[in-house]
Predict the 3D structure of the following.
Amino acid sequence: MNRARFEELVARAVEALPEEFCARLDNIDVVVEDKPAVRQLRREGVPRGETLLGLYEGVPLTERGSYYGLVVPDKITIFQQPIEEFCRSDDEIVAEVGRVVRHEIAHHFGISDERLDELEGREA
């Protein structure tokens, strides 16, 4: 899939979020990269041979206090190559992009991976 089409899928996934979530997405950038950098994998403790589909970098809303201001935007990165390798069809890519965007947005709201696994009915 070309980059423009993939970026469009990511934008649509963000736009499809419920309004109450979209209204709280101030100071956050959502970008697409080919794949995670080695430094990102190391910082996140990703075991060798595994990868990331998306990454939230920032200060979750639950950890922001009155001191929070004049900071660089939080960043959500969606990694195109790992998602395409994980999926077998364009329909699967569309669904996975939506899932990954929701997952990373949840981190912005302070929800941990463990809690997301519980909510999604998966074992951590």
The chain has one domain: 3-60+72-119.
